[in-house]
Write a structure and sequence with these properties.
Alpha-Beta Plaits, 36% helix, 5-stranded antiparallel sheet, Uridine Diphospho-n-acetylenolpyruvylglucosamine Reductase, domain 3, 8-stranded antiparallel sheet, globular, alpha+beta
Length: 471
């Protein structure tokens, strides 16, 4: 619990309704989407303006009290769990679309804005905001920016970082900074905008964002390609890109995921396929028809068992919704679901998926895999039971080997979920000791007291990497 002195100081900034320390509220904000991780905050606060965030940070800095800023808590790496106590700052009251600028094709928004609501709003104006994390119906723009969220459209359109033009943010000592703006070009000093995107709330509290919008595609088509051979599906991915075609969506589901998603969404998918590719192309109508025809030929050339093109927009939406529901479908199997992400060069997709299967079998655990084949970002997902410590130990050992396998194949430990607490012990595997030292220096410059989301990104002790022999 925070002291009465600190509580009064925070209430002087936020008002009495902006500070809560009752047990129910503290429990509600003690966890996020990461399983088996929960720590109570000392208090929960609800700012409504940038000035209030600034005032809060001045109070917390003076008392050296940790702060975790939070949106909807869909984080999957423990990034919004207050592992060192302190105060959780919930941004939901800062949820306005400040402006949509039709001349510059930008939108200025507050961080607590729901992602899907924003996307629907700009589409209603005839514009397009491509980043589409699977959590978009729940997640907030601020959370997307903090994690540099990806999504199904990342291959063609990029991720959140490619659409953030400028930020307003509050530093640990309460100072307000503004980076970038409604500009397509800006090389005035270090790129602080890009530095804050993906910084997981460890450097500053984002209070406003200027986002790039683009014209929407005029046409789109969606297709499924089904394979009895995993390598055939993987070769298809590479050959599509080699053919100079960049699909809007290029997703893969393994055999186990196909069955679970089909049971959940009633799509009538065959359960005897080793892999399914979900492919969507958009753009000018003639180009879309041409690309889909070429992609279908590539699929047939790689021995696709069946190829189906959605006949209506409703059918296409059903297929995409089913892919987005993969995690929900898998979560029905066992009491605990651990969704991870590891990224490899797309030419190594099949090798990585086979490694995941081998590692799962070695440790006697169930891991289903789906993900963004077009950009090499896979989501191995363990279905397990937190009440069985021995099984959880095997799951953790399996994921450690999966991260090592990804790096050995030229990949990384996380493509879009972030480092947070869960991946911190493995970060040095990817960036090296010098990289860690440099990142710590950046953290020190922004947050010398270490009060912004402490315990995240940097592990107290790095995990020793044991390079395994694969295959």
């Amino acid at each position: 619990m925070i002291s009465e002195t600190v509580k009064r100081e925070l209430e002087s900034v936020l008002g009495s309704g902006g500070v809560k320390d009752d047990p129910e509220t503290r429990v509600t904000h003690s966890y996020d989407g990461t399983p088996m991780l929960q720590v109570l905050p000392d208090a929960v606060i609800y700012p409504e303006t940038t000035a209030q965030v600034s005032g809060v940070m001045k109070v917390l800095s003076a008392h050296r009290i940790p702060l975790v800023s939070r949106g909807s808590g869909t984080n999957l790496c423990g990034g919004t769990v207050p592992v060192e106590g302190g105060v959780v700052m919930v941004m939901h009251r800062m949820n306005r679309i400040v402006e949509v600028d039709l001349q510059n094709l930008t939108a200025t928004v507050q961080p607590g804005l729901n992602t899907k609501q924003f996307i629907v709003h700009v589409e209603g104006l005839g514009l397009f905001y491509p980043p589409d994390p699977s959590s978009m119906a729940v997640s907030t723009i601020g959370g997307n920016i903090a994690e540099c969220s990806g999504g199904l459209r990342g291959l063609k359109y990029g991720t959140t970082k490619d659409y953030v033009l400028g930020l307003e943010a509050v530093l640990a000592d309460g100072r307000i900074i503004r980076t970038g703006g409604k500009l397509m070009k800006d090389v005035a000093g270090y790129d602080l905008t890009k530095l804050l995107v993906g910084s997981e709330g460890t450097l500053a509290v984002i209070t406003e964002a200027t986002l790039k919008l683009i014209p929407p595609p005029k046409s789109k088509k969606t297709m499924l390609a089904m394979y009895r051979d995993l390598y055939g599906a993987a070769r298809t991915v590479s050959k599509i890109i080699e053919s100079r075609i960049i699909p809007a969506t290029l997703e893969i589901l393994d055999r186990q995921t196909i069955r679970v998603v089909d049971d959940f969404a009633n799509l009538g998918l065959p359960h005897d396929m080793d892999a399914i590719l979900l492919i969507e192309q958009d753009g000018e109508p003639e180009a879309v028809e041409r690309d889909i025809a070429i992609i279908a030929d590539i699929c047939r050339g790689e021995s696709a068992e069946r190829i189906e093109v959605a006949a209506t927009p409703e059918q296409a939406l059903k297929l995409l919704t089913a892919r987005r529901s993969a995690f929900t479908a898998l979560a029905r199997l066992r009491p605990t679901t651990i969704l991870e992400d590891a990224t490899v060069p797309r030419s190594k997709i099949a090798d990585m998926m086979l490694e995941i299967n081998r590692i799962a079998a070695k440790h006697g655990v169930q891991i289903c895999t789906f993900g963004h084949a077009g950009d090499g970002n896979l989501h191995p997902t363990a279905t397990t039971d937190a009440r069985d410590p021995e099984e959880i130990h095997r799951v953790e050992a399996a994921f450690e080997e999966i991260f090592e396998a990804a790096i050995s194949l030229g990949g990384t430990i996380t493509g879009e979920h972030g480092v947070g607490l869960v991946k911190a012990p493995f970060l040095e595997w990817k960036v090296g000791e010098a990289g860690i030292d440099l990142m710590r220096g950046v953290k020190q410059a922004f947050d010398p007291l270490g009060i912004l989301n402490p315990g995240k990104v940097f592990a107290k002790s790095a995990r020793k990497r044991v390079v395994l022999q694969h295959g």
